[in-house]
Each structure stands twice: as structure tokens, then as C-alpha cells.
Amino acid sequence: MGHWFRVLTLMALSLVLGGSRCGEDEDVALELVRRDVAPPFDYALYCDARGGLTGRYSDLLLVHRSEHLERVYADAQRGDARARVLLGQLETQVEATGHVLADQALGMVCTALPACTVRWQFLDELMPSRGAGGLRLRHVLATSFERSARLKGVENAVITAVLSVLMVGAVVETAEMRAAAVEARTLTLGAGLTEGLSLEEAAALETHLAEAEALETGARHPAQLESLARYRPSLHEPPPGVAADNSRWVDYVAYWEQRYEELTGTRQRPPGAPPAKPPLAWDSYRTFLGRFQRAMEFQREVARVLREQAKLAETQRHWLRGLENPIVTENVGLVHEGRATLTYVDQLVVDEASLRPGRTPTVHCFSNKQRSFQSMSLQELRSQLRADAREALTKYGGTVEIRRPGHPLFGRKVEVSRVHLVYDEKELTVDAKKLLVTEAKDLGIELHFHVQR
């Protein structure tokens, strides 16, 4: 366990009702950070070329230097392998410290609040950052502590006292904390998928991932929590043939921990997400996420095609006929009347010309699908098309309220003018495509084909 986190463990002795002194390690740590003047940022200050921590106090100094910590966190969000490994080690150490804090809190008694207090100034001196990276580490520490403490039967008042300190004095969900939570969750998606996305788009992507993962039929770990805990993966112990800094392995460890927290009730599922299932086994996860990433890449390609067509003259467009000035957006949240949850359409196209006073907005919704058509008979093709058309019309057709802030129709209820379905045509024969186009006309949906590059 890193030096900074050993100091935090010692701090646990003084958490409740005065406790004991933290001792020499705390004094040394505080003296070190109080005298510290941060040099220009360089990864070599903290880790080797692969991201492994180096130096006795490297973790202590990194978490104390707010700008450096936030730089590492931002680089990890962008997919930098070295940053992801370095951040992963900090999170692993933070999580381990949470378990130790729970052990220290076991048996402590707290009869009243606010008499049951935590000496939080020390933690603030040690980790002053209020950016997304600092909040992420505090969140990991608080979640790990609470999960272990509740399993061990620690008194609720003690848990509340410790959590109030770890989450900066009060468990209040500020905008910055919501942003940190979304960014932390998107680590489990793979940074390449989330690069350049707004928080709303990242939330939509998270919802898509949750829906797809719930339907995945691959092997999963056991649902019983005591049995499941024995399968907890470690960043430092990847499967044979997998490097510790492999981005997919880093994603898997984060995904596994998130799912464990959801199953224990210490983390909430995304709004509208299906109930949590046990985490997928490593091989199943790797296959699933690869397939999901290809689907998201296909979606982005379709969006690119739509934007390119939007620039053409109306007579030259194949998919956007009848629109004067199309505006293309992705992953827009929609709400149907009588439903409590959002659905996210792959692409929403609005004719800007139809937004003029006195006109009815023209709105087209696109659903993108990749299927294994090669092994399907003609009858199976028909059945698959019917299922996909029914899903698209149910999720994206009819009267919807646009819920994307900043969209010209934000907050308005509109009637969807047309629903489109876009298939990846890679495995489709000419005859199969003709059959599908003919069938689609009878289903009230417009069908298109695109080959993924």
C-alpha cells in the first residue's frame, strides 16, 4: 500500500471521538507536503514509462499537487495508457485503504452527532483538489469504506461521520461531483468511445452500454456476493498473456468494481437501466466490449454520412429527402408521454426551416443496427427486420419530448415525422437487401444500408 494511504490508515485511529494520535508518519507526511513546491509536471516525477509508481513519496506528492493529479486524470480520460495505469494504482490503493478504515471503525461507538466528528483538515491538506480527479479518489475511498463497513456491521453513526469527511464535509451532489461521477463511469466504456463527448452524450452512451450488457449471454461470475468477492480482479494481476497496462484490462477492472458496488447497493444504476447482473467473466467481457465498440463506431459513421448529406443539395440526398436545412445530432434523450425513463436515439435530424413560427417541426429519428445476417435464412431476415422495426418505432416514434439541453427543440413535445433503420450491409446479398427493402415499406419504416469502413 502506498505511503500516503498508510498515513490515511493511521488517521483512522483519530477519526471518532478523539481517538489516538496518528504518529510520526503523519508528522512526516504533513511536513513534506507543507514544504512542497510543485515543479513543472512530468510523469517521471511519479512513475516509470509504463505508469508504475516509483519513489517512496510519489503517490503522496501526486495527490497533494492538485494540478498534477488533475492532469493525470484528464490524460486517463483521453485514453493515455500510462496515465490510466498510474490512476488505476491510486484507485486500487484508495480502495484498499477504505477496507482498512472499515476495520479500524469496527467496534467504535458514536452516541451523538456532531460530537462524533472526524478531523478532516488533515485530509484536506493532504489532498486539496476539488477537481474531477480529486473528487474521484474521494468517491472511491468513501465507497470502499462504506461497503466494507456495512458488511462488517459498523455502527451507522460512525459510517455517517466518516463519510461526511471523505465527501468534503457533507454528502452533497454538486455539479462538479456529478461530472466526476459521469467521467469516472465512462472509464469503463473505453476512453476512445467517450473522447469529445458532452456529459449528456456520455450519459447516453452509458445507458446504451448498460442495456447491451444486460442482454449479453456470455459467462458471468456468481451472483452470491461472498462467492463473487473471490473473483475480484487486480490491475497488477492480469490474465496470462495480458499486460497490466492493457487498456481493455484496465476497463474490465473498473467495470467489475462498478458492478460489485451496484450489487451491494453502494452505487446507483444509471436512470432507467435494467437491474444489475453479476459481472461478465473476463473473456466474455472482452468479446462483448469489442462488439459494443464496433457498434458505436458504426453509429458514428452513420452520423458522419448524415452530416455529409446535410451539406448537399436536397435533390442529392438519399437519406434526408424532403428536408431543407437538416440539423444532425447524436444520442439525444427522448421521453414518451406516460413513460418515466429516457430513450436515446442514435441520430436525431431536425429540419431547421420547419422551426420557423407557424410551422410544425419536421423530426426524423435513426436507429443503427449491426446483425450477423450471413447465417440467417430469408424467413429469419424477415423476423429480424420486424423485430428491429418494432423496437425503433416503439422507442423513437410517435410524440416525444426532446430532453437535450441546448437543442433548438429542448423541452418541446413533437411528433416524429419519420423513423429510419440503418443496417450494416457487410453480410447482406443483393437479393437479401431487396427483400428487406420491400418488407420495410409495409412496416412503416425507412430502411438504409451502410458498409462500415
Describe this structure in words.
This protein is an alpha/beta fold. It folds into 3 domains: 3-172, no CATH class; 188-280, no CATH class; 311-450, Trna Endonuclease, Chain: A, domain 1, CATH 3.40.1350. The chain contains 16 helices and 7 strands. The protein has helices at residues 3-11, 24-35, 58-64, 66-77, 81-105, 121-126, 132-152, 156-166, 175-186, 191-194, 199-215, 225-229, 247-264, 282-310, 378-396, 430-443; strands at residues 326-336, 343-351, 363-369, 399-402, 413-415, 418-424, 446-450. The protein has a 7-stranded mixed β-sheet with strand order 5-4-1-2-3-6-7, with helices on both faces. Helix 4 crosses helix 5 and helix 15 crosses helix 16 (430-443). The longest helix has 29 residues, at 282-310. It is elongated, with a radius of gyration of 26 Å. The model is unreliable at 9-24, 111-120 and 168-191 (pLDDT under 50).
